[in-house]
Amino acid sequence: MPEQLLLDRLQQNLARLRLSRVQAVLEETVKVAQEQAHSPLQVLDALLEEEVACKEQRRLDTSLKISGLPFVKTLDEFDFAFQPHLDRRAVQSLFDLSFLSRHENVLLLGPPGVGKTHLAVALAVKACYAGQTIFFTTMADLIEKLKQDAAAGKSGRGRSHYKSSLVVVDEVGYTPIGREECHLFYRFVATRYEKASTIITSNKAFVDWAELFHDPVIVTAILDRLLHHSVVINIKGHSYRLRGKVGGSGPSERGS
Ligand code: ADP
Ligand code: MG
Questions:
Q1: Is 117 exposed, middle or buried (0-12, 13-18, 19+ CB in 10 A)?
Q2: Beta bridge mates, 172
Q3: Fewest Cβ atoms nearer than 10 Å: which of 105, 131, 214, 226?
Q4: What pLDDT score does 63 carry?
Q5: What is the pTM of this model?
Q6: What is the pLDDT of residue 179?
Q7: According to the model, what pLDDT value does residue 256 have?
Q8: Nearest atom of ligand 1 to the alpha carbon of 81
Q9: CA dist., res. 70 & res. 121, Å (int)
Q10: Sheet containing 197-202: which strands, arranged edge to edge?
């Protein structure tokens, strides 16, 4: 078969198989292979490596886009020197992601600006790179979603906030939670308990959660399940947002 016909047929088959990256680099790869006397195996390997890398990049881009992350940051960008009292070893060891396979939760506690969201995001990004499904939400948005599910008479279990292998619930404690909302959150926590990991960030110590959730019985049940298999990281330090702006005992920051 003439070379051009062969190329045409190859391109058609690549299109049918949706190997778009191979399609794009085929001619150039073949040309280089002829010039440099690459073996057929080397050519096949180069083409498939290209396709796999391209598909993986696309998966990452899409996953990160729909994950709800407020920004993308990594552990490398976290300055431990700024938080000298933070247990660096405990934080770093989370990044081997073994807590995910053990279905453990991570609770990041501390005042505003100390890097709770940063670390939660960095863990989610790492998990996404490792091929896990991730979902990020604030507590306020999660409660809204749970209410919508309940109003529609659905369990919501097929949705990302239930089924992702890692869900981050950011900012527990900024908004008070009503009685009905309390039960919805309990059901969310109980559904994921021992099945998948959840990261919680909060500006409130656990003793203050009772006040936040109104219902002391439910709050005990929530904490019981959240903490049973968990890593708790307390960040007792100054706000990174206010670095260089106020002295050590400057005014406390509002908001998150
Ligand atoms: P929190 O969630 O505890 O209120 P954030 O994680 O949102 O705080 O941190 C506020 C900002 O400061 C973010 O831009 C974050 O990336 C940055 N930040 C916080 N702590 C550090 C740190 N130790 N090193 C580098 N950047 C930090
Ligand atoms: Mg935050």
A1: buried
A2: 202
A3: 131
A4: 95
A5: 0.88
A6: 87
A7: 47
A8: 23
A9: 8
A10: 134-138, 166-172, 197-202, 105-109, 230-234
Query: For the chain (length 256 residues), average pLDDT per consecutive 10?
Result: 91 97 96 96 97 95 95 97 96 98 98 97 97 97 94 84 95 90 95 97 93 88 97 96 67 44
Give the chain's length: 256
Ligand nearest to the CA of 237: 1
Closest ligand 1 atom number to CA of residue 235: 3
In this structure, are residues 106 and 94 in contact, taking their beta carbons and an 8 Å threshold?
yes
How many CA atoms, within 13 angstroms, populate the side-chain half-sphere of residue 255? 2
Nearest ligand to the C-alpha atom of residue 120: 1
Atom of ligand 1 lying closest to residue 119 CA: 6
Q: Which of 74, 118, 200 to mutate to test the pocket of ligand 1 (most atoms within 8 A of CB)?
A: 118
Residue 74 Cβ inside 6 Å of ligand 1? The answer reads no
Burial of 54 (0-12, 13-18, 19+ CB in 10 A): middle
CA of 114 to the centre of ligand 1 (A): 5
